[in-house]
Amino acid sequence: MLFVAVAIGMFMPLVVVAQVTTSSLNGHVADEAGEPLIGAAVVAVHTPSGTQYAAVVNEEGRFVINGMRSGGPYKIEVSYIGMSTIEYTDVVLKLGEPYELNVVMTASNELDAVVVVSESSFNASKTGAGASFSLRTVETTPSIDRSVYDVVKYTPQATLNKNGGISFAGSNNRYNSFQVDGAVANDSFGLSSSGTNGGQTGANPIALDAIEEIQVVVAPFDVRQSGFTGGAINAITKSGTNTVKGSFYSYFNNQDFIGTTAGPLEDGESREKYDTQLAQTYGFTVGAPIIKDKLFIFASAEYYKTTHPNVYSPDNGSYDGILLNEEVILPDGTSLGRYFNSAMAAAMINHYEKNYGISNTGESFSQHQVTDQSINAMARIDWNISDAHKFMFRYQFMDAFADQYDSGAYEYTFNNSSYRQSNRTNTLVAELNSRISDEVSNEFRATAVFVRDKRSVAYGGANIYIQDALTVNLGTDYSSGANAMNSDTYTITDNVSIFKGNHNITVGTYNEIFRFYNVFLQGAYGSYGFNTVNDYFNTDISQYGYRYADPDLTGGDTRWGATTWAAQFGLYAQDEWKPNSNFTFTYGLRVDMPVLLNKPTANPEFNASEIAVNNNQYVGTTPKPNVLFSPRVGFRWYMDKAKKSLLRGGAGLFTGRVPFVWLSNAYNNTGMEAKSVTVNQPDSDFPLTSNPYQDIIESGVASAGGRATINTLSEDFKYPQVFRVNLGYEQEFGQGWKFTFDALYSKTFNNVFFENLALSKTGTVYAVSPSAANESNVAPYYSVDGTYQAVVALKNTNKGYTYSLSGKIEKSFDFGLDIMASYTFGHAYSVNDGTSSVALSNWQYNYSVDTNSPELSHSLFDRPHKVMAAISYTTPMYANGLQTSISLTYNGGSGQRFSYTMDEDADFNGDGRTGNSLLYIPTQAEIGQMSWANPGDAAAFEQYIRNDKYLSSHRGQWSQRYGGIGKFEHHFDLHIAQDFYYDKKHGRKLQFVVDFLNISNLFNREWGLYYNAAWNLQILNVTKLTEDAQGNMTPTYSFQSPQSLSLSDFYSRWRCQLGFRLTF
Questions:
Q1: Distance between CA atoms of 820 and 889, rounded to whole angstroms?
Q2: pTM for the whole thing?
Q3: Scanning 132, 666, 790, 952, which has its CA 20 to 30 A from the CA of 1064?
Q4: Is 534 helix (H, G, I), strand (E, B) or coil?
């Protein structure tokens, strides 16, 4: 009947990601004969705050207390008339994991209580794979960035990617959920590589010192947890207590705390230090009672700033080794030579200011300091209204920016031609936990998160793009003149728990509503392309581009942005049944219904086209509301009376959400509001202007037109879903040793798939030759519709799966030593990993044989092997107030995935894009039948195949997307803390901290190396295609030997940071 109610309740406005923010206590109370002691009183007191929770034992002898503060320590007292009162001390509750307490009471006439000190690590009741990280773990984990990810990467199923994001179970980090106190902290829109709010600036979504505990879940069979198909990170912030406590802290590092050049050196090279740079962090925390045992406050603030020089500049000779295509001669006959130096840079600025309508750009080209900065502050109120009602309110503010300079060894961007990425985030959380009766409790939570991301530029001027031997960028950055995103997220959660006999029933709802406003117009001030520096001075334009919004459709706004309203409605219910003290069975159902609340502007011309009609894809429509069911079951079985052996597991469906930028693409790219102007090789009198709408559009010099890019949403599109199965085994043995094993399997039910509807198959391309053609070495050849550049539809696929096996052993010794080691093996397979925020890029760069029907292959996030180890030791107090802590960690794992592809002077498969076709790996006999542009290419390619492990083992096949894998990497990190106690009774101390990352590189510059593998290695170049009478194509190749791996110079060097913390 409960699930019938769920189905009937679907009309209610409900939603997805109801993650937990509290803990709970449950158990059984009986006498020595095993008879339940009905009416026994259980009182739990959170010792630091005096917060009290109570329950009465029911007719089955069971009790439950929900909505409790995580952490502790707690003192729990169990009493019954005629029985000795039992008191448990030092009980610590884990976030989101019920603590089980089974009590056997004895008859007594004595008044003294029996005191028991909590020890068991098995009391916390999780059913699925995941991990919990206590405050102690957070404080002792080696970290320089002071990111939550530095802690949660020690989850066996987690992989920390080099772009700053974290992947769980082989899934894209965009498919994760990250919540702090139940409020959304992940980047719902999906622009940041880290996947968190503020991630585009490199800022952390919350200060690490404000966090009390972190929970990671990968396969939770609690239906309250949802909104992800990767993993979920739940963090809770610290709260005030009855004691005034706080801290002041600071961290510092500069160029002297970073190693010299890492890796092997070429002849004549020397190991170099970085130029002057500085990173500083300052912060404080404070918690205090406002009214003892009743009302508490906690506040924190953190300021971070880093400065470092931009490395590349014509002022310091960075480009003295690059010979331009021709000698640069100014119109007045002055020669500037063939090297990009200070004189040439100054002349370019002067020419720009005289000709492009911006007389004072403030441009410069000298080496200067680049700055990143963030401020993160929060305040939290906890109010014990009564023993039955607890209220919490939290406000958090973040303001951050990062200066972005895109210069490199072969590309230079002038100083004021770059941009500043800024972020401002405001978060509000309110939560009320109520005990309505001994059988009913309620948890209510409301949150609001407001995110403002923006790119700011020094001036609004035309973009100049010069593609000489050195690429040079001048003027406003091409993608930053009109680039902003506003995100508003509102959530309401309500969970009702009903405790009846051996059943703990939960019925709940989570309502989530989003509003996104996205401005993204490339070339918003116009963009002039030139083939050489000479062409720039002589105004010989190769191409002009300008993108704007049609003011007739946007109310006069030429910098219009699309607004997207979305919601996700859902309802869930579950029953946790405990037939005896050794076995728990959980079963539940979650029902979600995503909805887009507004529609894109319709495009009548496109909607009448054959592409639209034949594919049932229309601009202006959105997916129909569809109901997504997520049934789940889970169990926990203690296999022995001593509860040392635990078998746990479950199975179920998990519904996530897509990055909303993928949906927003269909609102921005309708072919209506946003207009594009493209003029190839314009006449010599073409206007040079930074006000293109007035000087080009309104003046009639050029008009919008050409082939537009259209994005559509399939009518039956569904949010991501995976079916996930987990089986885990935990064993305590010896003197406190613990072994954990987890097997995890996920099968894709719904995932994203991007298809370009502007393509049609017209023939075949022979990878070898027509005479050697067989089903293994041919691929489809396409033609592109002449009306549109691309028509990218967002669809679903059910192809894909992941699996992993992990084992971990750990022990905490009484004398302060903790050790842990784990190994994880697994694979992940997909057809599209959604690595870009742009629909066109997600289709274009999804390397494949058949571009519109990509093959199931390795995921970019597939890392087969992961090894972790950690050892930490804290000394006893010595020398009347000194204490030392040392933590050494090891992370080893498979390298980055990459694909073997081809460079394409000629478009290999006719899809209108180059560089995205997978390489065919010919047999030795087939190489001789291929057409080669240069003598010796065939022999060189043959030798390359023989020397490459992957290619040599896959001959006669197409290479797989992300079939290649980088070198296994080994990284050691070290944390040392020295405490000086000035008030031992209250734990007040001065602490000095040193953190080393990649410390092995300190002892040997060729140890601890980080490798960057390009996403694709282009082995061959398709120089031309020869067409036969049937429209089939035969390619001619040239061989080009790529570099498969390159060192990440910064991360391969050892790094160190010093810090201090004064606690009071």
A1: 9
A2: 0.91
A3: 132
A4: helix
